[in-house]
Amino acid sequence: MDGAHALTAIASELPEYPDTRFTSNHSFFGDLHVGAWYMFQRVHDLDHLNQIRTVKKEDGYLNVEA
To answer: Is 23:32 a contact under the CB 8 Å cutoff?
Structure first.
């Protein structure tokens, strides 16, 4: 989760209007510019966070018998 917080923290240091001329390819979504990559990563991190929260709510979570 520290990575997600760090990513959010640096958002205030980004330019108001980032240079979107350059892209990098995502294997599923295709070419994404910097703003799209930022939004993708935020959604991706939140998806994993929700998955973790769901697992932690399951009966028997961490009640592992050795």
So the answer is: yes
How many whole angstroms separate alpha carbon 36 and alpha carbon 47? Answer: 16
Identify the DSSP state of 15: -
pTM of the predicted model as reported, rounded to 2 decimal places? 0.64
Overall size of the chain counted in residues:
66
Beta strands 30-33 and 23-26: pairing type? antiparallel
Q: Note the pLDDT of residue 33.
A: 95
Give whole-number Cα distances, 17 to 14, 39, 52, in Å: 8, 14, 34
**CB 35, CB 18: distance < 8 Å:** yes
